[in-house]
Amino acid sequence: MMEVCLCTYNPRPEVLQRVIQSIANQTVAAEHFTFLLLDNSSSPALAIDLLAPLQAQGIACRLICESRAGIFHARNRAMRESSQPLILWVDDDTELPSHYIADCLEIAREHPEIGCFGGKISLGPQCRFPKWTVPIHPWLAVIDRGESPITNKANHWGPWEPPTAGAVVRRQVIDHYLDFVSRLPTDYSIGQVGNKDLLRGEDSLLMRMAHRVDLACSYQPRLQIVHHIDNRRFKTAYLFKLFYGYGRSYVLLERILGESLPPLSRRSAWDFFWKTRLRRESANWMIFVVMKAWNLGFITERTIQQS
Fold first, then answer.
1. Confidence of residue 277 (pLDDT cuts 50, 70, 90)
2. Which candidate, 149, 194, 238, 263, has a CA 20 to 30 Å from the CA of 31?
3. Range of the domain at 33
4. Which residues face 224 on adjacent strands?
5. d(CA 170, CA 117)
6. Is residue 77 a contact partner of residue 9, using CB atoms and an 8 Å limit?
7. Are residues 200 and 267 in the same domain?
8. How far apart are CA 273 and CA 290, in angstroms?
9. CB of 251 closer than 8 Å to CB of 302
10. What was the pLDDT predicted at 299?
11. Helix 266-275 vs helix 285-302: angle between axes, to the nearest 10 degrees?
12. Are residues 41 and 188 in the same domain?
């Protein structure tokens, strides 16, 4: 049994409807999964009518609201609301093929040693982007790591770790995660908040819990979803802000997982900025500039004194 969870804030209505319809069109019988739509204080609030395609197929579904802003709080609420042994995460712009849930359930049955898994994520046909951005598409959750599964049990990032979109997470991982975050300061947050703070890391925080319950993460290429990215996310200004957020998020994530990252001195910060992510390591000048935004975010967060 699986719960499909979708957390959203001010979604594009036509894309969200397309995503929900793709869930309603699943080939697996309705009794094998339920659906949870979590509205993270959208304005206007989401209407219950959005669930009509699911209800027409006899799929148990519900709409709940979370007032605390940010994907971190939204997903935490969804996990607390769900009691199913598996959660499939779907974003408000990721469309599932009709056999996706059936494939996920089969993989979960065949591989009890895997705690989290996901697959390929391809761009929607409406996406328009400058060619120079192609090498950094994986940072926008566009994933193709080949035709062979990649599985590992490790306490660090690797190609086996899935982004949350399209990923399945077992209850053992979720329960350990919820216990972990319950011990954090009440004002702690990681990940994006609305459209202004492009932090990341909340997905890695969840996936890293698999290692702590002796389970693996896995890339399963038989799975593939379509990511209908808003074309505004390919603009240089957005990408600069995104990579700045990635740099900050790396520090926030590693610190909360117990890594000692003391504040940088001015000299160390200067050396790090110029001596890492060199021009020769970038496919073009634009990527070099965007990657330097990562450095800047990393340095900014490293210079903040920890209480």
1. confident
2. 149
3. 2-232
4. 120
5. 9
6. no
7. no
8. 13
9. yes
10. 95
11. 160
12. yes
The answer to whether residue 307 scores a pLDDT higher than 50 is no
Which residue type does 133 have? T
Residue 50 maps to a domain: yes
d(CA 136, CA 108): 30
Does residue 208 share a domain with residue 273? no
**What is the spatial distance between Cα 3 and Cα 25, in angstroms, rounded to a whole number?**
16
SS3 state of residue 65: strand
Strands 2-8 and 168-170, bridge-based pairing: unpaired
Question: Is the pTM here over 0.85, yes or no?
Answer: yes
Query: Does residue 221 sit in the same domain as residue 251?
Result: no
The tally of domains found in the chain comes to 2
User: Do 70 and 171 belong together in one domain?
Assistant: yes
Determine contact, residues 249/146, Cβ cutoff 8 Å: no
* Cis status of the peptide bond prior to 221, with omega within 30 of 0: no
Enumerate residues 6+ apart whose C-beta is below 8 A from 258. Answer: none
Residues 53 and 190 in one domain: yes
Residue carrying the six token digits 């990635």? 246
Q: Note whether residue 307 is domain-resident.
A: no
What is the pLDDT of the chain when averaged over all its residues?
A: 93
User: β-strands 86-89, 114-123: how paired?
Assistant: unpaired
Strands 33-39 and 168-170: unpaired
Give dist(CA 241, CA 233) in Å, integer.
Answer: 10
Q: Say if residue 210 is in the same domain as residue 290.
A: no
Strands, E assignment, the chain: 2-8, 33-39, 61-65, 86-89, 94-95, 114-123, 150-152, 168-170, 216-227
Q: Which two tokens stand for residue 174?
A: 């979720």
My answer on whether 154 and 183 are in the same domain is yes
Q: Are 106 and 114 in contact (CB under 8 A)?
A: no
User: Which 3 state secondary structure label does DSSP give 5?
Assistant: strand
pLDDT digits (tens, 9 = 90+) for 62-82: 999 999 989 999 999 999 999
